[in-house]
């Protein structure tokens, strides 16, 4: 499996929802594919698709009634699918006020719950 270096500095939220990717292929023809949204942050997202999209390709992401624009930063083939990483352009940022994926999870909430359970059951902190 390819190891990707984490380059996002903002919090990445795990999610699942169907969204549409729109881009132009090498011949200039507009292409559209629905894929599964894997994670999202203010500055980017990862979508699972059945087709590759070249790194550096400009894309439009259709989610609900909102459209975000970005650039493909990675495309990795894994588990019989392509995982496409998109960095949003400076004028296109995601906000939970604009689009809430059908399934959305902040991993920090899980850590907080585990720590709270540990502390209540043991009387000590894991972070000491």
Please describe what this structure looks like.
This protein is mainly beta. It has a single domain, classed as Thrombin, subunit H. It has 1 helix and 7 strands, in the order E-E-E-E-E-E-E-H. It has one helix spanning 107-122; strands at 13-24, 30-40, 44-49, 58-63, 66-78, 81-88, 103-105. It has a 6-stranded antiparallel beta barrel. Strand 1 and strand 2 (30-40) form a beta hairpin. The longest helix is centred in the last third of the chain and has 16 residues, at 107-122. The protein is elongated. The termini are far apart. 20% of the residues are buried.
Summarize the helices and strands and which ones pair or pack.
Layout: E1 13-24, E2 30-40, E3 44-49, E4 58-63, E5 66-78, E6 81-88, E7 103-105, H1 107-122
Antiparallel strand pairs: 1-2, 1-4, 1-7, 2-3, 3-6, 4-5, 5-6
Give a quick rundown of the structure.
The chain has 1 helix and 7 strands, in the order E-E-E-E-E-E-E-H.
Give a quick set of tags describing it.
46% strand, 7 strands, 128 residues, six-stranded antiparallel β-barrel, single chain, Thrombin, subunit H, elongated, mainly beta, 1 helix
| Helix run count | 1
Counted beta strands: 7
Mean pLDDT: 83
Low-confidence stretches: none
The structural class is: mainly beta
- Percentage of residues in helical conformation: 10-25%
Q: How far apart are the termini?
A: 35 Å
**Shape-level CATH architecture:** Beta Barrel
| The CATH top-level class label | Mainly Beta
Let me know the largest β-sheet: 6 strands, antiparallel, barrel
Principal-axis shape: elongated
> Order of strands across the biggest sheet?
1-2-3-6-5-4
CATH topology: Thrombin, subunit H
Task: Output the helix-strand order.
Answer: EEEEEEEH
Q: What gyration radius follows from the Cα positions, in whole Å? A: 17 Å
Strand residue content: over 45%
Number of domains: 1
């Amino acid at each position: 499996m390819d190891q990707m270096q984490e380059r996002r500095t903002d919090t990445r939220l795990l999610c699942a929802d169907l969204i549409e990717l729109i881009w132009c292929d090498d011949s200039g023809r507009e292409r559209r594919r629905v894929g599964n949204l894997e994670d999202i942050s203010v500055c980017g997202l990862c979508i699972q698709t059945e087709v590759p999209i070249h790194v550096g390709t400009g894309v439009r992401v259709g989610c609900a009634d909102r459209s975000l624009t970005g650039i493909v930063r990675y495309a990795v083939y894994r588990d019989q699918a392509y995982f496409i990483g998109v960095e949003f352009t400076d004028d296109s940022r995601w906000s939970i006020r604009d689009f809430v994926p059908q399934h959305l999870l902040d991993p920090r909430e899980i850590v907080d719950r585990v720590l709270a359970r540990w502390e209540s059951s043991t009387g000590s902190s894991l972070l000491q």
